[in-house]
């Protein structure tokens, strides 16, 4: 078998102690390692197929079936963070935003260095109208100082849109409008920044990139974030 054959090479052919360790084990137990390796691959594939089926049920609106299946998957392999994220999404679709945010935070605590999971948790908290907690969680990956301004300076539009929607649901129209207008300000800055590139592109003869930029500016205000911000501000 390939796995055992590779590891049965001389220890001198392995560049690290880890490979030498596996070399000694394979020489002792032989092709049983190939069987174990295939079992691991089979287990991982079965888990991923199960998650795919769970998402299928969720997409079809069968949240009860999806929740029962995801609970079985978590019970079987409780260390996979993606399972908790999927369950959080299912709970959101089922209408339980608070439980969805709590589960997303549990997934975040399993890997505090993952920016994506942190952002997903913040999004779930904002959907549950937990704005203060969401802001404290979001700033874990920003620079020190005025954290809210850091989010604005980074043009984190998804956060501002979600915050605006949350404030709107809570009846705080002033803060909601402030967040929606902040997104509009980002697009105004993008429009203003383009003027620096007209002479630069012509001077450097980067005409293809220049044409792409002009086309991007033509459809700038048709971007989904701008449209969501405009609709939110008009409301």
TrEMBL record:
- UniProt keyword Membrane, yes or no: yes
The coiled-coil segments of this chain are none
Q: Which SUPFAM superfamilies match?
A: TPR-like
Q: Which GO terms describe its cellular component?
A: cytoplasm
The record's annotation in InterPro entries points to:
NatA_aux_su, TPR-like_helical_dom_sf
What keywords are annotated for this sequence in UniProt?
A: Membrane, Repeat, TPR repeat, Transmembrane, Transmembrane helix
The signal peptide annotation in the UniProt record is: none
* Membrane-spanning segments: 35-54
Keyword hit for Transmembrane helix: yes
* Name of the molecule in the record: Uncharacterized protein
């Amino acid at each position: 078998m390939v796995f055992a054959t590779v590891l049965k090479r001389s220890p001198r052919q392995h560049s690290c102690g880890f490979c030498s360790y596996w070399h000694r084990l394979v020489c002792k137990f032989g092709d049983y390692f190939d069987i174990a390796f295939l079992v691991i691959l089979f287990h991982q594939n079965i888990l991923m197929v199960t998650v795919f089926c769970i998402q299928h049920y969720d997409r079809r609106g069968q949240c009860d079936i999806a929740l029962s299946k995801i609970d079985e998957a978590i019970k079987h392999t409780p260390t996979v963070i993606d399972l908790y994220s999927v369950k959080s999404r299912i709970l959101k679709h089922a209408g339980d935003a608070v439980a969805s945010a709590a589960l997303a935070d549990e997934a975040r605590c399993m890997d505090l260095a993952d920016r994506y999971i942190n952002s997903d948790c913040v999004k779930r908290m904002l959907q549950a109208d937990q704005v203060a907690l969401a802001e404290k969680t979001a700033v874990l990956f920003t620079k020190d100082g005025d954290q809210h301004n850091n989010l604005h300076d980074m043009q984190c539009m998804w956060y501002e849109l979600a915050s605006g929607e949350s404030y709107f649901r809570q009846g705080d129209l002033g803060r909601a409008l402030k967040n929606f207008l902040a997104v509009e300000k980002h697009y105004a800055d993008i429009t203003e920044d383009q003027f620096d590139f007209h002479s630069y592109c012509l001077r450097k003869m980067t005409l293809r990139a220049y044409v792409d930029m002009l086309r991007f500016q033509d459809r700038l205000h048709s971007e989904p974030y701008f449209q969501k911000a405009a609709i939110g501000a008009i409301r």
